[in-house]
Amino acid sequence: MTTEATHPTVDRPRPQPEAATTAPAFPSGFLWGAATSAYQIEGAVREDGRGVSIWDTFCRTPGSVRNGDTGDVAADHYHRYEQDVALMAELGLGAYRLSIAWPRIQPDGRGPANPRGLDFYRALVDRLLDHGIEPWVTLYHWDLPQPLEDAGGWPHRDTAARFADYAELVYAALRDRVRWWTTLNEPGCSAFLGYGSGRHAPGVRDHAAALRAVHHLLLGHGLAVAAMRAHSPAAEIGITLDPAPITARSAAAADLDAARRIDGMKNRIFLDPLLRGAYPDDVLDEIARVAGLAHLRPGDDAVIAAPLDMLGINYYRRYVVGAGEPGPEPSPYPGAGDVVFLPQGKPQMANGWEIDATGLRDILLTVHRSYPAVPLFVTENGAAFDDRLGPDGRVSDPDRVGYLDGHFRALHEALGEGVDLRGYFVWSLLDNFEWGEGYSQRFGIVYVDYPTQRRVPKDSAHWYQAVIARNGLA
Ligand code: IFM
């Protein structure tokens, strides 16, 4: 068991670090970066042989994305990547986490690589290296080629094999210049939002399909790791998850059970197979009840548990849960329709997520203490606020500065507790297409004026630049 769900005390007093007399400094070599993903920033969806992804289709399904927004243009990074890399260099970033658009490489999701797709990423990576910025490549950040969805998508076992083929193609083309590789970004969102609640592409609402998707995403990850390592063992390969601390509203048995179930579907369903070699028993019982076990085959567990060189953690919020009544919207999580998610009265981001920096420390400690050792990186963390370009040409975002400061202190505490944390990537470099919320939310430390595509570093970008320069807080 991995989170506070397993510790029935609510608001348990925690040991407080002694009041800091000096500003937190980070270990030498700590990696400071920024992250984006292909569909959220690139645009150019019909250029250079790119195929159609499930997000292109979903965006055209009426009512799926706020304001009918699409990623057709996004932040136009496909055409402006040189300018964007120059901006990263100015900020002093040590690393940039990007994702590859699978439909640019294999427009149909299978077959030989589209050379023009690879050329774009080669050029981007080379530009990063020219500036001394380490490229961190994520192979899958949610943009499945539509033909693979038409053939069954992630609930279909063959998609795992297709993903491994794709991973090997990209790896073969870029491994001479990219050291750090991540297979999947937040497979929980792909499975449970894509096939459970239907809030993300492809918009399916079927818990059995979601659980099959979980397994095939994990299997695809394991097969991809094997294919990449067979090609050349030199790479550093990992996966990015978005585990969250789950806190029960009270010590009542029903609330603790609600917390166990959410912890199971949000955290342990991924962490346990990857790091311990099997689904936890209670999660497996739920999979059997909802989806049956026919999709789990002998040998899968070992493939999925391929040793990792690092684990990426994306952190945004803590979940406080209790037992309640099923709501009107379908839960993303099987067996959790009755679970209520409770506000704690903390300050919120523009999307309503409550800000809780202590949750970042807690989830890092949980992963560190409950699982076999693996180097950790925070591969995403950030906040959306209602940013505006001022008449003076500045974007003043004190809330984001406060947010980052609080979360950096949480990182520092985790390091002090012995967590093997090696780096941090802010989400996001640029304002971008926030999936079902379209362009209504701005997560960037750089403001994008969409009508002109002008980039304006927000105050938080300048503040982050100073943190990076001194490798610590002021
Ligand atoms: O924008 C997303 C990103 O694509 C995945 N992690 C969460 C971010 C904010 O919602």
What's the gist of this structure?
With 474 residues, the protein is of the alpha/beta class. The protein contains 15 helices and 13 strands.
Structure description:
By secondary structure, the protein is α/β, with parallel strands linked by helices. Helix content is 38%, strand content 14%. It has 15 helices and 13 strands. The strands form three sheets. An eight-stranded parallel beta barrel has the order 1-2-3-4-5-7-10-11, surrounded by four helices. A hairpin with a 4-residue loop joins strand 12 and strand 13. Residues 37, 40, 186, 314, 380, 427, 434, 443 line the site of 5-hydroxymethyl-3,4-dihydroxypiperidine. Residues 37, 40, 186, 314, 380, 427, 434, 443 line the site of 5-hydroxymethyl-3,4-dihydroxypiperidine (IFM).
Strand-residue fraction? 5-15%
Which strand order spans the largest sheet, edge to edge or round the barrel? 1-2-3-4-5-7-10-11
Average of pLDDT: 95
**Number of helices, where a helix is a run of at least 4 consecutive DSSP H or I residues:** 15
Helix-strand sequence: EHHHEHHEHHEHHEEHHHEEEHEHEEEH
In total, the number of strands is: 13
Kindly provide the radius of gyration, computed on alpha-carbon positions and rounded to a whole number of angstroms: 21 Å
Q: What separation lies between the terminal Cα atoms? A: 37 Å
CATH 2nd-level architecture: Alpha-Beta Barrel
CATH class: Alpha Beta
Unreliable stretches covering 5 or more consecutive residues:
1-19
> How many domains, in number, for the residues?
1
Oligomer state equals: single chain
- What is the fourth-level CATH superfamily? Glycosidases
User: How much helix, percentage-wise, in residues?
Assistant: 25-40%
